[in-house]
Amino acid sequence: MLNQKSNLTRRGALAACAGVGALGLTGCGKGREILYAADAQIDGYPTVEAVRFMARRLEELTDGRMKMNIYPGAQLGAEKDTLEITIFGGLDLNRVNIAPLNSIARETFIPALPFLYNSIAHARAAMDGAPGQAILDALEPHGLIGLCYYDSGARSFYNGRRPIHEPDDMKGMKIRVQNSDLYVSLVEALGANATPMPYGEIYTGITQGVIDGAENNWPSYYTSRHFEVAKYYTLDQHVLAPEVLVMSAHRWNRLSDDDKQAVLQAARESVPYMRQLWDALVDEARETVLASGVEVVEDVDKSLFAARMEPVWDRFITTPKMQNIVDDILSMEEASA
Length: 337
Ligand code: GTR
Prior knowledge:
Elements: H1 4-18, E1 33-39, H2 46-61, E2 66-71, H3 79-88, E3 93-97, H4 120-128, H5 130-137, E4 144-150, E5 155-159, E6 174-177, H6 181-189, E7 193-196, H7 202-207, E8 213-216, H8 218-223, E9 232-239, E10 243-248, H9 249-252, H10 257-291, E11 295-297, H11 302-309, H12 311-316, H13 320-331, H14 333-336
Parallel strand pairs: 1-2, 1-3, 6-7, 9-11
Antiparallel strand pairs: 3-10, 4-10, 5-8, 5-9
The structure holds beta-D-galactopyranuronic acid.
């Protein structure tokens, strides 16, 4: 059993060492480094396992000098809150979706534009390439270092009221969205009411009728068990926005150049590992959810959803720099097809 005294002593040491930070989850001392990482997804989810992989690589690359402690399942709070703590320097690493970064750096709207990509391969190529790097770089002036992207597949609508075949079926529905103006606009463009709310509150929100549904990819719909309470899933695939692993610039700036390189290398090496786990979980999620009796609407005329959502592009792409990144992504379409 963990002895309470040593636990308290450790907390005191952490707080003293961190100097700043609401959580004080940053570790240092005698050349040894402990990086603290948060994730809103449950233990075992591909993003969590990818950060664990990164931790093992980081330990190897630094001969055991750098270690990581990972807190999955939103133990440290919802993404919006843990991001603020990360920027402030109270938490070292945070794996989040791109959406909660939207209010921090406008460039992060780009990968969440509706129907931007023509395939998963296109999304991966764009995020692995120059456009993805330009978006990560845009985070730095806001106190975050973007280390890498992870997959998040395609997000689609689900609800507990009726099957959605076309946008008009969503009229008046209350749909939970992430904390992002772009997502609010997307849902409102369809005639539904957007309700921003943390991920962890969706299940109860649906059972209590606060919301009718939400939108997410297969693995999240499955592992969050939302499929138990929202039995209609429509594969409109409106957004292929990625997950992002960010680091607090406070912490980053205190690392030696060699340690920065090791962190970056370990993060990058975790990406192909994550993708393997991701592809397998998409299959498992689809099979299990279908077997549970969920009604999946596969035959969707996506052009109807795309037409309604199109005005969102002009509303959120507001600078020539952003437009150039969008153009770069669009020009990669053929190469990745
Ligand atoms: C998931 C993502 C989470 C969180 C969640 C949400 O796909 O992995 O980080 O952003 O969506 O909808 O809040």
